[in-house]
Amino acid sequence: MRRLRVVTNPAEPLLNPGAEGQTGDVHPLIEVPALDRLLRQQTPLVLLDVRWHLAGPPGVDSYRKGHLPGAVFVDLDRDVAGPPGPAGRHPLPASGDFEAAMRRAGVSGDRLVVVYDDADSMSAARVWWSLRYFGHDRVRVLNGGYRAWTETGLAVTTDEPDVKPGDFFARPGRLPVLDAEGAGALATAGVLLDARAAERYRGETEPVDPVAGHIPGARNAPTSGNVGVDGRFLPPGLLRERFAQLGATDALDVGAYCGSGVTAAHEILALNLAGIPAALYVGSWSNWVADPTNPVATGDI
Fold it and tell me: What residues does the Rhodanese domain cover (predicted)?
């Protein structure tokens, strides 16, 4: 990012625009064969199961029915977000709370973390983003998630591992974020992407928040368009084409929001794969409409 870039240490770049799809030295995605190879080689890593369903059954139920060997369950609502309120339905957690949750899951600063969900990485991306925001440099998302693992015929288990607490130290501010004022300004001065489904963007329906519509000037880019039918991310070239059609390139300031900052993190990951740095409006629509003075647009523009 340029004007909207928020970093703790400005001398340390968060994304190398010349390294396609990379944040630091670690590519944000890992494929099933590569993860299987690491596990077979007993490579030290932390495997986090972050399955989560909006208004659906608790993700821990899925975890208990079967998960990747050695995986530890992380609850997105409890461990990765602060209490819902005016700041949004999934606001940033306090640094100490996030640090404690990650340590309970075994996360250490020098150990690779691999995160997965059911298939499409919608919730896994929020954990990837959160760990990166709080300063963990080695985080990867399992492309295709649990479904890709099982479709390959690899084993799952119901055994829950004994977790040795980690030593992760939270250092917030390592990725750029937006507040409501910044998001509203970016919709005019740069490119602000609305990651929700088109009908929610247009204001035709709103199943969760009290007001329907979108931030004036935002452009609709549903996260479902970032992945194929198998839940895997599209190739970087196709992602670049998709975002370029929406006006989002690495030559502009770009940001993303959704309903509560979960699926928008998926948009940030997809933009990262396309080589486009972007800021996350964590509070998203649920924070925007908490202030009745914020304008609301409906329709296609």
Answer: 41-158, 191-297
Mind listing the pLDDT tens digit for each residue in 55-87? 777 889 999 999 999 999 999 999 999 999 999
Among residues 28, 19, 27, the alpha carbon closest in space to that of 250 is found at: 19
Please name which of 25, 263, 296 lies closest in space to residue 123, comparing C-alpha atoms. 263
* CA distances for 210 relative to 54, 203, 206, angstroms: 16, 11, 7
Helices (H), strands (E): how many in the chain?
Answer: 11, 10
For helices 263-273 and 236-245, give the axis angle rounded to 10 degrees.
Answer: 110
| Cβ atoms 231, 147 nearer than 8 A | yes
Distance CA 269, CA 104 (A): 25
DSSP, collapsed to helix, strand or coil, labels residue 199 as helix
Are 208 and 280 a contacting pair, CB within 8 Å?
no
pLDDT grade for 14, boundaries at 50, 70 and 90: very low
pLDDT at 24: 53
Choose the catalytic residue: 258, 273, 276, 290: 258
In the predicted structure, residue 224 carries a pLDDT above the cut 60: yes
Catalytic residue flag (residue 258): yes
Question: Which 3 state secondary structure label does DSSP give 40?
Answer: helix
Beta-sheet pairing, 72-73 with 177-178: unpaired
For residue 75, what are its two tokens?
A: 């609850």
Average predicted confidence (pLDDT) for the chain = 91
Query: 6-15, 60-69, 88-97, 123-132: lowest mean pLDDT where?
Result: 6-15
Strands (E), the chain: 29-30, 45-49, 72-73, 112-116, 139-142, 177-178, 191-194, 219-220, 254-257, 279-281
Measured CA to CA, the distance from residue 123 to residue 246 in angstroms comes to: 24
Say what percent of the chain tops pLDDT 70.
92
The tokens of 138 are what? 């080695």
